[in-house]
Every structure is written in structure tokens, then in C-alpha cells.
Design goal:
The structure holds 2 protein chains of 2 kinds. Helix content of chain A is 40%, strand content 15%. By secondary structure, chain A is of the alpha/beta class. Chain A has 2 domains: 337 residues, 3-Layer(aba) Sandwich (Rossmann fold), CATH 3.40.50.11540; 144 residues, no CATH class. In chain A, the strands form 4 sheets. A 6-stranded mixed beta sheet of chain A has the order 1-14-13-17-15-16, with helices on both faces. Chain A has a 4-stranded antiparallel beta sheet with strand order 2-8-7-4, with no helix packed on it. In chain A, strand 5 and strand 6 form a beta hairpin. In chain A, helix 2 packs parallel to helix 3 and helix 8 crosses helix 11. Chain A is globular, with a radius of gyration of 33 Å. Classes of the chains: A alpha/beta, B mainly alpha. The complex binds iron/sulfur cluster (2 copies). The site of one iron/sulfur cluster has 16 residues of chain A, from helix 7 and helix 8. One iron/sulfur cluster binds next to helix 10 and helix 11 of chain A.
Chain lengths: 553, 334
């Protein structure tokens, strides 16, 4: 079957460099002496630790519970003793630490009871809770909790499930190798997802530089005999594996920044995520391992099946890190992040560990001024004008950068890849985005501070007025007999003042009444209703104001 | 530590600029053959002046000199100036023009990438405004050997008319001013098959170089296509309305700097429009203004002034022609 493919603008064609790590099948990496399992491995809330130091845990036991619905649980990948629950270095460019559970495996690999879950009988909410508690997140690198993406569309029915096997980044081959060996299970997982989404068709997108994977998937689809599954080979062009780009290529739909693909009837998952869903729902296995490509400046580039929490140094040991390695990267060479240290653990987002050497990825040449050649704009898959973003980000003109759609930038790196002036363009966008976020945080903080300040002022003012009124009332009461005693002359000026005040108040009331009548007059028969509503609103405000004002006696 | 992407394409400003220089070679060679090798002397003069000015300005601005000199952008400006100048121009005029382009046109605006005006066209405009007589010193086809041309360039000999022949655009202007029919003028001596003996071939050589730039993706099709179409269109319409006053499209396309402008001048990325639609507007604008100057103005060729005028409009053109962003194409919220 020949499907009409669409294309996205821009994109680049770097050397894929995928052959070295696909020569050998996936190898299961032994357990390291210590596993460091970060609690926060997903987009959303940080899971709460469920274990204490010294406690024995079993393989598959939940050690961190999802914090709210936008979160995902974490599990022990092996049985052993909890040695620590403390902040550890994270695989993150910032070199920050975060809470992690440190487990020393005992080598017995004793499992918790694996109970297959009868997801067909369960309600949609129960299935979602189950997946959340099985720690299933997007394994393409975004680690968005999968259960949140598995509801039928709200705005419109989800008609298409896209399974992303494009894997467009150079060097990375974990999805390729997974498709070659687990094609059947991946498609079975996709069938489950299709059913949960209520989708009609499943489109599996695979770049044409992975013929073996495509053949394996085709064979599996034929074996399943499911006509709704279609394996689609797409042209190799980075970033064809970006969710939005792949959706565009397969369906022609462009999902704008800030909207969900389900608003357009499409949902997209990575192939490894489909397998994780199957493992969780059909086999009761939580997500505790993943396939990691180890490539670049290593002796034995290969894909490894790695327990989450394995220190990166341990993984590189098995692949044989070459001595002239100058940097370690998590992810691919286009979007990967530099790793701070060998001790940082493999997490659910780790699709690739790339060793860099000066020969492999030479340090960038000196940055020259932008010559406005427009190469970057021709390469940008988001149809942006990267050099305009660059000018404005560099000038700290963040408002203008946002007008040029800074936040539509997916940081794919195509622009910097082609720039003849060797400008690290993406660094400028990351900088601009973080500045804008920081400013928004500051502004939010300032706003709430101002609100607090204004409320305090208002309350103080009100207290003062009340005290003044009470004081006035008291002194008036005290003055009355005295005034009577001192006689008419002394009373006169005061009386005059009071008279004048009363007259002013009457005049005001009249004026207000006149205004009100003016306003209501054209509304005709509705005036009673409108007035009633306004009163009700005013009443509501009063009611709302009352509880917050605890000083009211 | 630097961040992703770690992979970079093997591209550089130096490579881009070198390609432009190579693409200029066919036209330069042909021009030398037809009008004498004095052009090479002007290219050398302009190159040396440009590099010296660039180095001096970078030093004055406390910028690293070596990488900027190596980017070859000053050479491109120098060569573009030199090929526009008549080969019999005194040497100091070339130096003044080039220095003006580099110092005022480029570095006072902030150097590479910052100049709003095309520096080569600034130099040309300066020279034609200040020294209109000298700028008309084009040798007649095949007139004068190299030694006598050098006398012109470095010596003081000023018996201009002995060697120079009017350029086709000049001849047309003069002819029309004396009340001749355009067609009649076009069939007199300085004209070859279409647009002046020799000139049409130089123009075609520029087009050849331009096609090379297109093939190597140094430029996109937008500017040359819009430029050529606009010139052809306006010339066709005008000559259909009044053939006695206006030359036809074949003449306008092949005479003067039309094809050079279309492929090498209006395509300057720094001072030109950057968006696809903006490039079309920018190039068509230059073509129309240039035609107007040729037809009604006081200068023989109007490409330089047209380019400078459209340079002023670039920020507005770019702003108004931003292409739709991914996902916002069907009038969706942006
Ligand atoms: S590719 Fe580089 S030099 Fe060219 S316009 Fe973009 S940022 Fe400027
Ligand atoms: S990093 Fe951003 S601006 Fe650059 S090509 Fe990718 S999406 Fe476009």
C-alpha cells in the first residue's frame, strides 16, 4: 500500500553514523554494584519516596509513588538493600543533584508478585492509574507520563495513533534494534494503545535508513493480521523523528506550538513506549530497564539493555571508553546534553550515551558575525527565522524574540548545524527562553507580593478608619452633655459643620440616584434583572471579602 | 563547555565568499579579453585597499584581525567594485571608492553583517556622483593595448576620447536626446547583436557565474528570477507603448549591469531582504527603479542607486513578509 507522504520544510542530513552500534544485537548489561534511582524521571511532579534506608526491596517494587496525576512512579530494578535516600548527581547539564534511592543489589533478583492486569475489563481511569503506578513514561527522551496521553480525545475523537520509530538523530539506534528484535510486542502494545485511545488506525513511521527494522515490523504486522496497522517508511531527514514533524509527514497535520496533537485527532508514542505499555498491562512489569545506545568514541559501540539507575561510568566500562574522550553526551549529537560526571545514572530519558572526542566532534570554530545568509531559515523545521531570533536574543530584546516565535523553536539544532558563521544559535535561544521564564517567575512573585502588600495596606487603612470612627463616636457621646452645658454659642460652629456634612451627603445620594436612573433607563424592562445581578455580584464580593478579613469583629 | 549541536556541517563564511569569487571569474576573464587587462590592475588595487582598510578598521575597533581577514568578505566587495569601474579609471579613484565602501559602508556600521547598504554599490554611487566624466572612461572594444591602458590608469594622459567608446546605455541616452528613434540608435556602431558589442557576452558570463551560485546553493532563485522577470516585463510594456523612446527587454536584460546585478549584487545577503517573499519584492523593486533611472534619470545605469534605495526598505520588507510558522499556516492563532 502506498501512502501519500507529506513533508516538513527545512531539516538537515547529517551523516547518520548508525552502522557501528547495529552490528551486534542488544546485550543485557549486568547489574552494577550500586543502583542510583532518581525519583524524578518524568515531566511533572516529583514522586514521593516509599522506602527507608536499610529496607530490603524486591525487583519491581515501587520505591517512589506518583505525586498527583501528572507524575509517574519509579521502581526498583533489582532486589537489594536501600543504602540511602539522598540527593545525588543527575544526568543533567546543570550538574544539579536531586533526590535518589540508592540500592545495593543482593544478586538474588527476587521479584515482587507479577500480576497481569485485566485492562480490558478495567475502566479507563483504572488503566491510567495502573500505567502511572507502573512508571510508564515516553521513552523517546521526553519522559512525559504516558497515562496522561492515553485518553480518547476531548475536542475530537483520536483517529490516528502514530508510533514513532523514525529515530532521526545520528548515532542513536536503540529504537532500530528494539524494532528488529521486539517487533511483535511493540505492535501488540500499539494495539492496546489504539484501543485505549479509540483510534482507528496505527501508523508506524520508520526512516528509510532502517530497512531491517522496517522489514521486521512489516512481518510482525502481517503476522498479527491487523489491517489497521500500517508500517510507513519515511525519508531520512533530521528531525523527521520529532513528534510534530513525524505527524506532519504521516498525516499532513501540523500541530502548532502550545496545542496538543489530540486536538487534531492524532496521538504519538515512541516504539519503546508501546513495548513498555504492553509489559505493564499484559505482564505486570513496571518500567525498570531500557535500551541504551552506547556509541561514539568507544571500542565496542552497541545497544545495551540497562537497568535504570546504572551509573553511566559502568555502562561505558562495558563498551570500552577510549582514552582520548573529552566529553560525555546523553542523547544524540544534535540535541544531546553534556553529562557532568560518570557517576550520574541512566534514567528513563537516556536513549543514548555518546562519547565525544576532539576528532569526532571538533570544538566549534570561532563565532563570526551573522551574515544573514538565511541558511538557518532554510534548515529550520519549525519555519522560523533563526537569525532574527538570534539578533533579538543577543540584544536581550526578548519581547521581539517572542514575536518571532521563540517558543515555537524545538531546539533541534538544524540552524546551528548549517550556520556558516558557526554561531551557537541554540545556546542563544536556550538563554533567551530561560531569561523569559525567570522574568515571568519574578513577575509572578512580584505580583503576589504586591497583592499581599496592597491587601495589608487596605486592611491597615480599614482598621484605622474603624478606630477613628469608634473614637469619633465615643468623643461625640462624651461631648454631647458638655455641649449642652456650654450653651448655644459653642455649639453653633459644630452644628453648622454637621449640617453642611449632611447636606453634602444628601446631594451625593441624589446625584447617585440620578446616575443610576440614567444608566438603567435604556435597558427598559431588563433593568430590574440587571440591577439584581449587579447587586448579587456586589453581594458576592462582600461575602468573599469577609472571611479573608479576620480583623472584623 | 559547549552545547548541542555537536555536529556541524562543513560550512564557513570563507567558503561562501570563495565560491562567490570563483563564480565571478568567467565574467572577469571575458571582460579582460574584450576590454583589456586593466581590469586586473583595478581588481588588485581594490583588493589591497580593501584588505588594508579592513585590517585597520578591525584594529581600531579592537577586534581580532586574522579571522575577519580570512573570511574573504572584503575581497568580494573589492572585486565587485572593480568590475563595475571603467578600466581606464585613474588608480586613485578605485582606491577612494574601495576605501569608502570598507570604512564608511561596512565598518562604521559595525562590520561584517551589520551594514544596511551594499558597500560595493555605495562605492559606485560615490564615484559616479563625484567623477561622472572619469566613470565614463570605458575603452572601446579592443581599443588600446595594456601599456596604453596603464598610462591611463597611472599616468596623467587625459585625451579621453581617443580611446573611450560610449557604452551602449550612454549611446542610447545620447541618441534619444538628439531625437533619434530608439531602434535607429540601437543599430549604430557600439551595438552588437543585441545590447552592445561585447557587453551582451559579458552579461551572459555573469549569468553563467550566477547559475553556478544557484547550483551550489549560495543564493536562492528568488532574487535573480524576480529581478529578470521585472526588468523584462517593464521593458516589454514600455517598448510596446512607445517603441521610439524605450528599448526592448532584450536590450535591457543584456545591457549594463542587469544580469550582474540580478545574480551578484541584489543577492548580497547582508544588505538584502531575507524572507522568500521579501526577496521577490526586493529584487523586483530594484529592477523597476533601475529601469526608471535608465529611462528617465540623469545617470546611464541605475542599478547602484536602485539597490541603495531598496536597501533602505529591507527592514520593512522583512517585517511584512515573515513566512508563516509551523502549525500556524492556515491563519491559526500565532
Ligand atoms: S546561518 Fe548563521 S550566518 Fe546565516 S543567517 Fe543564519 S545565523 Fe546568520
Ligand atoms: S533549533 Fe529552533 S530555530 Fe534552530 S532550526 Fe531548530 S527549531 Fe529552528
Amino acid at each position: 500500500m502506498l501512502r501519500k507522504l507529506f513533508s516538513f520544510n527545512g531539516g538537515v542530513k547529517p551523516d547518520p553514523n548508525k552502522s557501528a552500534s547495529t552490528r551486534e544485537p542488544i546485550a543485557r548489561l549486568p547489574l552494577p554494584p550500586q543502583l542510583v534511582i532518581p525519583l524524578h524521571q518524568n515531566i511533572g511532579g516529583t514522586p514521593r519516596p516509599l522506602v527507608r534506608v536499610g529496607e530490603r526491596v524486591r525487583h519491581g517494587q515501587r520505591i517512589g509513588a506518583a505525586d498527583g496525576n501528572v507524575s509517574s512512579a519509579v521502581h526498583a530494578p533489582a532486589s537489594g538493600i536501600v543504602m540511602a535516600v539522598e540527593p545525588r548527581l543527575m544526568p543533567h547539564a546543570s550538574g544539579l543533584s536531586a533526590m535518589a534511592v540508592v540500592i545495593e543489589p543482593d544478586g538474588q533478583d527476587e521479584h515482587v508478585e507479577r500480576e497481569p492486569f485485566d485492562w480490558k475489563a478495567a475502566s479507563a481511569d483504572e488503566v491510567r492509574d495502573y500505567l502511572r503506578d507502573a512508571g510508564v513514561v515516553g521513552l523517546g527522551g521526553a519522559v512525559f507520563p504516558s497515562h496522561l496521553k492515553l485518553s480518547p480525545g476531548r475536542a475530537m475523537a483520536t483517529h490516528t495513533l502514530v508510533i514513532n520509530g523514525a529515530e532521526c538523530e545520528p548515532f542513536i539506534t536503540c529504537d532500530d534494534m528494539l524494532m528488529r528484535s521486539e517487533a511483535h510486542d511493540i505492535l501488540h502494545g500499539a494495539q492496546i494503545m489504539k484501543r485505549l485511545l479509540g483510534a482507528r488506525q496505527v501508523l508506524v513511521g520508520i526512516e528509510d535508513n532502517k530497512p531491517e527494522a522496517a522489514a521486521a515490523m512489516r512481518a510482525a504486522a502481517a503476522a498479527l493480521g491487523d489491517p489497521s496497522i500500517e508500517i510507513v517508511v519515511v525519508p531520512t531527514r533530521y528531525p523527521a523523528g520529532g513528534a510534530k514533524q513525524l505527524i506532519r509527514v504521516l498525516t499532513g497535520i501540523e500541530v502548532p506550538h502550545g496545542s496538543r496533537s489530540t486536538d487534531y485527532g492524532v496521538q504519538c508514542f515512541n516504539v519503546a513506549t508501546a513495548l513498555a505499555v504492553l509489559n505493564a498491562l499484559e505482564r505486570g512489569e513496571p518500567l525498570v530497564r531500557r535500551i541504551v545506545t552506547v556509541a561514539g568514541n568507544v571500542e565496542r559501540p552497541r545497544n545495551f539493555d540497562v537497568a535504570i539507575g546504572t551509573p553511566i561510568g559502568f555502562v561505558f566500562q562495558h563498551a570500552g571508553l577510549k582514552p582520548d574522550t573529552d566529553k560525555l553526551i546523553m542523547g544524540g549529537p544534535m540535541m544531546g546534553i553534556p553529562l557532568p560526571d560518570m557517576d550520574a545514572p541512566v534514567v528513563k530519558a537516556t536513549n543514548c550515551l555518546l562519547a565525544s572526542s576532539p576528532a569526532l566532534f571538533p570544538p566549534p570554530q570561532p563565532e563570526l558575525p551573522c551574515i544573514r545568509c538565511g541558511e538557518c531559515a532554510r534548515a529550520c523545521p519549525a519555519d522560523l527565522q533563526p537569525f532574527e531570533l538570534y539578533w533579538h536574543s543577543r540584544a536581550r530584546n526578548f519581547g521581539r524574540a517572542q514575536e518571532y516565535h521563540l517558543f515555537d523553536c524545538i531546539e533541534c539544532g538544524c540552524c546551528a548545524y548549517v550556520c556558516p558563521s558557526h554561531i551557537p544559535l541554540v545556546d542563544y535561544y536556550r538563554y533567551a527562553k530561560s531569561e523569559i521564564w525567570a522574568r515571568e517567575r519574578d513577575k509572578d512573585a512580584a505580583d503576589s507580593a504586591r497583592e499581599r502588600f496592597e491587601f495589608r495596606n487596605w486592611r491597615a487603612e480599614r482598621e484605622r478608619e474603624e478606630k477613628a470612627a469608634k473614637l469619633a463616636a465615643r468623643s461625640a457621646a462624651a461631648a454631647r452633655p458638655a455641649a449642652a452645658a456650654t450653651g448655644a454659642e459653642a455649639d453653633d460652629p459644630k452644628k453648622a459643620l454637621i449640617e453642611a456634612a449632611l447636606a453634602r451627603a444628601r446631594a451625593q445620594k441624589d446625584a447617585a440616584a440620578a446616575r443610576a436612573t440614567d444608566e438603567l433607563a435604556p435597558a427598559g424592562g431588563q433593568q430590574a434583572g440587571t440591577g439584581g445581578l449587579q447587586q448579587a455580584q456586589a453581594g458576592g464580593e462582600l461575602v468573599q471579602a469577609a472571611p479573608s478579613d479576620k480583623q472584623v469583629e | 563547555m559547549y552545547n548541542s549541536p555537536y555536529l556541524r556541517k562543513n560550512a564557513s563564511v570563507r567558503r561562501v565568499m570563495s565560491t562567490v569569487l570563483v563564480a565571478m571569474l568567467p565574467a572577469i576573464a571575458l571582460q579582460c579579453w574584450l576590454f583589456g587587462s586593466a581590469l586586473l590592475v583595478h581588481i588588485a588595487l581594490a583588493s589591497v585597499t580593501a584588505l588594508l582598510c579592513e585590517a585597520a578598521m578591525l584594529a581600531l575597533r579592537h577586534r581580532p584581525v586574522a579571522p575577519a581577514l580570512g573570511d574573504m568578505s572584503a575581497l568580494v566587495t573589492a572585486w565587485l567594485i572593480a568590475v563595475c569601474l571603467p578600466p581606464l579609471l585613474p588608480w586613485w579613484a578605485t582606491v577612494i571608492g574601495t576605501a569608502f565602501a570598507l570604512v564608511i559602508g561596512k565598518h562604521l556600521y559595525g562590520g561584517l553583517g551589520q551594514n544596511p547598504f551594499n558597500p560595493a554599490m555605495l562605492a559606485y554611487a560615490l564615484l559616479i556622483v563625484c567623477f561622472p566624466a572619469l566613470m565614463a572612461q570605458w575603452p572601446g572594444l579592443g581599443v588600446g593595448d595594456f601599456a596604453s591602458q596603464m598610462d591611463w590608469v597611472f599616468g596623467g594622459a587625459r585625451a579621453v576620447d581617443a580611446m573611450t567608446g560610449a557604452t551602449p546605455l550612454d549611446a542610447l541616452r545620447t541618441g534619444l536626446m538628439t531625437g533619434q528613434h530608439a531602434d535607429a540608435v540601437l543599430h549604430t556602431t557600439p551595438f552588437g547583436h543585441v545590447a552592445g558589442a561585447g557587453w551582451e557576452w559579458v552579461s551572459l558570463a555573469w549569468a553563467l557565474g550566477g547559475l553556478l551560485l544557484l547550483a551550489l546553493r549560495v543564493i536562492t532563485w528568488h532574487v535573480p528570477v524576480a529581478f529578470i522577470v521585472a526588468v523584462a516585463l517593464v521593458a516589454t510594456i514600455a517598448s510596446a507603448i512607445d517603441p521610439a523612446r524605450f528599448a526592448g527587454p532584450d536590450f535591457h536584460l543584456l545591457a549594463g549591469g542587469t544580469l550582474m546585478g540580478a545574480f551578484f549584487i541584489a543577492t548580497d545577503p547582508v544588505s538584502g531582504a531575507t524572507t522568500p517573499r521579501g526577496k521577490l519584492i526586493f529584487a523586483a523593486g530594484i529592477a523597476l527603479i533601475a529601469w526608471c533611472i535608465r529611462a528617465f534619470g540623469a545617470y546611464p545605469d541605475g542599478i547602484a542607486f536602485a539597490v541603495l534605495l531598496m536597501n533602505i526598505c529591507v527592514p520593512m520588507i522583512d517585517m511584512k513578509t515573515q513566512p508563516p510558522v509551523f502549525g500556524h499556516k492556515n491563519g491559526g492563532a500565532s
